Amino acid sequence: MKIKVLIVLIIFCFAGCKNSDKVERENQPTIYNVESDDKEMSEAIAKANQTLSDFNLALQNPKIEVKSLKVKFETSEGNEHIWLSNIEYKDGKYWGILDNEPEYITEYKIGDKIEVDKSNISDWMYLKNGKLFGGYTIKLLRSRMTENEKDQFDAESGMQID
């Protein structure tokens, strides 16, 4: 399923390179490294948090199948941000399934169900008729790709990104 490719393709770790350095991993999603003081990324994360109510509305819509949260995990190597799927929201708390094998996180593995601290949400997304809603960090990282990388990303994800 093409949509699944998106969720496992994009994770990033705030580490060392401002220009979205990437780390390719065999049979694992690409990691995009971004400096912790990257102003544009901080703005994208802030926008995601400011619009979280839009995501909450999508969670209530059973016709929307793909709904994901990106969550920050603190590690000794820096912060690692990973997408969670199968999001549930009950009593003011989010839960989701870790979609990727972490690079630096040791306490969780792919497939683990995790409670999300709202203060650690770094992005949200959902797809409606193939169109991406939210995905502010995705849009920023995509804007930093070469045209060939964008074409490949668009083909693999199957998403319409404005």
How would you sum up this structure in a few lines?
This is DUF2314 domain-containing protein. The protein is of the alpha+beta class and 162 residues long. 29% of the residues lie in helices and 38% in strands.
Q: How would you describe this protein?
A:
- The chain is 29% helix and 38% strand.
- The chain is α+β, with helices and mostly antiparallel strands and 162 residues long.
- It has one domain (2-153).
- A hairpin with a 2-residue loop joins β2 and β3 (28-35).
- The two termini are 21 Å apart.
- Residues 1-20 have low confidence and may be disordered.
Main beta-sheet annotation:
9 strands, mixed
Q: Tell me the strand percentage band.
A: 35-45%
N-to-C CA distance: 21 Å
Query: Topology as H/E string?
Result: HEEEHHEEEEEEHH
- What is the strand tally? 9
Can you tell me the residue ranges where pLDDT is under 50 for at least 5 consecutive residues?
1-20
H/I helix tally: 5
Rg from alpha-carbon coordinates: 15 Å
The general outline is globular
Total number of domains? 1
InterPro entries: DUF2314 (IPR018756)
Organism: Flavobacterium pectinovorum
Protein name: DUF2314 domain-containing protein
